[in-house]
Structures are given as C-alpha cells and as structure tokens.
C-alpha cells in the first residue's frame, strides 16, 4: 500500500542551537494507525507541528498525499485533522458554531448531518448551544476532536488526545478511531497510556532526543524484543541462588521465596524443562510456577533507557 505521508530527513533547529528533530525519515501507509511513543521533550509534538505546517522545518521535506507541505501547503493541510495537546478554543463561541466554522475554514460545504453525527458520537449534541467557556475540561477536549474531524480529513493527528480526561471520553475516542480506520483514515497518535497504543496501533514508532529509534509493526516488535519470564515460587525461602543453578542466570525475588527466570520464546529451546529438573535436584520444593511476558511499555522503557542500541528497520521503511 502506498504511503500517504512521507517524511524525509526532517530537521528542526531553534535559535540557540537546540536541535529538536535530527534527520527524521518516515513513511506512513494510508489507513494505518501509528503510535508515536517517546518521553517528554522527545520531539513528538515538534514532529507533528512541522508536518502540519505550524512549525517550519530547518531542512528536509514532508509530502502529504503527494502534496509538499510547504510549496503546496493548502492542499496538504486540507488532508490533515489535528487534535493538539493544548486546549485553544474561543471561549464565547457556541459548540455547534465552532465545529461548523472549522469545516468552513477548509472550503467544505455545509453539512449539518455530518456535524450532528460527530457531535453525537462525542456526546456533545446536548451541549451544542453551550458556550465553550461553560464546558468542563473534558468537554473542551471533545470539542477539539470534533473540530479536527469536521472537514473529513484523510490523516488525523492525535497529540495526547486523552491526557487528563475521563474514562468515558477515552472509550469514546478509541471507538471513533476504530471507525475512522475502517473508513480508510490514517491516524498518528501520541499517548502516555501505552497500553492504549498496544491495543489499537498497527505500528509503533519510538522517538527520543529528536531521533526516531525505530518504526516497526507492533506484533513484530513485541515478538522481536519481548521477553517471557518464569517465576518459580519456593515452599521455603532461600538466602541466595544455589550454586547448582548458577548457569540459569536466575534472580532472587520476593524476599528469597521466588526465582525469576527470563527466556526468549524465539529460541530453539526455552530451557524451562532443564531449569525445573535442576531446581528439584538442588533440593528446592516448588509451591507454584507463574509466567508473564513483556508489554509494549516494558519494551518502550527499555529502548529509551538504552538510548536506541536495539534499532529496528530503517526509519523510512513502511513495514
């Protein structure tokens, strides 16, 4: 499938020499959901702002649906919907008016049925005649989402769309995201709720220090970098791992009442059978055995703390 968004060697340097983006390259396919993860100050918002034309790049290029986002700005921007982190709304405007106005800004004809559908999906219909200043923070966030959807964009950027909002809005938001994806809309989101990215994203990108560490299909990333752990719970705690078990690289946990064994599911042998036999031969009595595997959050934390030592495919790869 062709890329609807192509970013090539994008760099952004501010006065004073701070480089917020350091040669980011990325292709995003039409109809996919990409979760862009990174710590605060990693460059996520700068990247989104540059693609959307809010910030001017120092060098590099961005193509949106085949349109250059500088020389063909209007055509490129018309394909994009943006839900920013900050709530910037005209306080005295009514909900219905501000969402309708956003559609008109992009030259779209009036469509009361569409606007009404968006407001209903976001539980804003009953508030359509309310002024923005009279809404709660969560309702204002809903208005931002409605404004971003009003002109029927082909690409939707969600920059921390559910940060600090209620569970109901988060549920509504992800349901809308699934509907948009089913309709062919491409979605790029940043979120601090990594479990949400794990549940909804097709691919995951990790950015830190202005550099894109990797972009990879979620399932492939978790299979490649995820680990499984086996915790052997002992009937009687021990003060140290017995010498006879030293070759298994075990960790003593839970005050000596558990042995933690990490293994790779891709390996030809996990070593579990040998481990359990050796534990029995060492005279230890098991009370229970439990397994768990890495989450996307575990992998993300490991990548960021390692500074990108474990890179995936080249930044421009679309798969």
TrEMBL record:
Q: Does the keyword Zinc apply?
A: no
Q: Where is the ABC transporter domain?
A: 5-234
Checking Gene3D superfamilies in the record gives:
P-loop containing nucleotide triphosphate hydrolases (3.40.50.300)
GO MF annotations, alphabetized: ATP binding
Question: Which InterPro entries is this protein grouped with?
Answer: AAA+_ATPase, ABC_transporter-like_ATP-bd, ABC_transporter-like_CS, ABC_transporter_ATP-binding, P-loop_NTPase
Which spans of this chain does the record mark as coiled coil? none
- The name this protein carries in UniProt is ABC transporter ATP-binding protein
Q: Does the keyword NAD apply?
A: no
| CDD domains assigned | ABC_DR_subfamily_A
């Amino acid at each position: 499938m062709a890329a609807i968004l192509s970013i090539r060697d994008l760099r952004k340097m501010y006065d004073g020499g701070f480089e917020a983006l350091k040669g980011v390259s990325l292709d995003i396919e039409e109809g996919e959901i990409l979760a862009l993860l990174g710590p605060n100050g990693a460059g996520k918002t700068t990247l989104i702002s540059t693609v959307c034309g809010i910030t001017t790049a120092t060098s590099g290029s961005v193509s949106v649906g085949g349109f250059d986002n500088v020389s063909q700005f209007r055509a490129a921007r018309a394909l994009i919907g943006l839900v920013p982190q900050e709530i910037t709304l005209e306080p005295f405007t009514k909900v219905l008016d501000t969402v309708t106005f956003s559609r008109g800004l992009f030259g779209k004809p009036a469509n009361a049925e569409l606007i009404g559908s968006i407001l209903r999906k976001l539980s804003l219909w009953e508030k359509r005649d309310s002024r923005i200043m009279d809404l709660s923070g969560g309702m204002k966030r809903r208005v931002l989402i409605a404004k971003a959807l009003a002109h029927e964009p082909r690409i939707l950027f969600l920059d921390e769309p559910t940060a600090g909002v209620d569970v109901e809005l988060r549920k509504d938001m992800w349901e809308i995201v699934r509907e948009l994806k089913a309709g062919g809309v491409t979605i790029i989101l940043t979120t601090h709720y990594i479990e949400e990215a794990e549940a909804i994203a097709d691919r995951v990108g990790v950015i830190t220090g202005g550099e894109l560490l990797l972009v990879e299909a979620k399932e492939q990333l978790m299979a490649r970098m995820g680990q499984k752990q086996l915790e052997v719970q002992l009937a009687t705690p021990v003060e140290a791992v017995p010498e006879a078990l030293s070759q298994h690289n075990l960790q003593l946990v839970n005050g000596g009442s558990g042995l933690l064994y990490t293994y790779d599911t891709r390996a030809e042998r996990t070593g579990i059978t040998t481990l359990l036999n050796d534990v029995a031969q060492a005279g230890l009595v098991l009370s229970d055995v439990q397994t768990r595997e890495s989450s996307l959050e575990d992998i993300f934390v490991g990548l960021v703390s390692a500074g990108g030592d474990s890179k995936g495919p080249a930044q421009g790869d679309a798969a």
